[in-house]
């Protein structure tokens, strides 16, 4: 048996980013553990590290971002949004987020990234005239999946040129984290240094 296993945090940068978005409201350790499908020990370690960089306050009702934490979250939010639940695709929970100024990208590579991160599937769309469209042929999502297109438009204030990342997976946590994974594969370089330090 490996006695060292406990020494290594079992969480990823995707978990750290998800927790920052979650802690906009006071949240308990158990709720974080369930939402991210993480062990309580890993959640404890992650919260301790967030405490070490003075990003959170802890109270009876749970943990929440303090002013420093909100500044860090704003630094992330300038590049991509919170992942939001947008119903189901192929019977699986689906999440979406938007990425600002995505730069050059290949849809197929981003889809592969999501699937490598436990997604069952992913869609990469670009916003044109307020509509999410498939970049390969400019076809609006509303043509093939009108309900999904509506849910995306309800969840986000879409701005032209943004990327919309939609991912789905067997587990909610995997659907959410694979969306963050795609955002981080595009924007990981520009994350605040303190956030990157959480997983070192």
From TrEMBL:
It comes from the Archaea. One of its GO terms (cellular component) is cytoplasm. GO terms for biological process: translation. The keyword Ligase applies. Keywords: ATP-binding, Ligase, Nucleotide-binding, Protein biosynthesis. Residues 12-70 form the PH0730-like N-terminal domain. GO terms for molecular function: aminoacyl-tRNA ligase activity; ATP binding. Pfam families: DUF4443, PH0730-like_N. Residues 100-186 form the DUF4443 domain. This is DUF4443 domain-containing protein. The lineage of its organism: Archaea, Methanobacteriati, Methanobacteriota, Thermococci, Thermococcales.
């Amino acid at each position: 048996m490996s006695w060292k296993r406990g020494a290594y945090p079992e969480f990823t940068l995707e978990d750290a980013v998800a927790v920052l978005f979650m802690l906009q409201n006071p949240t308990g350790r158990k709720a974080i553990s369930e939402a991210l499908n993480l062990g309580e020990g890993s959640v404890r370690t992650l919260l301790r590290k967030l405490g070490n960089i003075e990003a959170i306050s802890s109270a009876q009702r749970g943990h929440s971002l303090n002013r420093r934490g909100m500044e860090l979250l704003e630094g992330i939010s300038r590049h991509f949004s919170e992942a939001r639940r947008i119903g189901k695709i192929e019977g699986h929970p689906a999440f979406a987020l938007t990425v600002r100024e995505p730069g050059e990208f290949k849809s197929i590579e981003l889809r592969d990234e999501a699937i490598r991160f436990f997604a069952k599937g992913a869609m990469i769309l670009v916003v044109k005239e307020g509509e999410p469209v498939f970049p390969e042929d400019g076809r609006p999502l509303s043509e093939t999946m009108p309900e999904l297109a509506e849910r995306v438009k309800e969840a986000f204030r879409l701005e032209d040129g943004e990327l919309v990342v939609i991912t789905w997976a067997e587990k909610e946590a995997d659907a959410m984290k694979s969306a963050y994974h795609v955002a981080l594969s595009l924007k990981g370089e520009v994350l605040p240094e303190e956030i990157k330090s959480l997983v070192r």
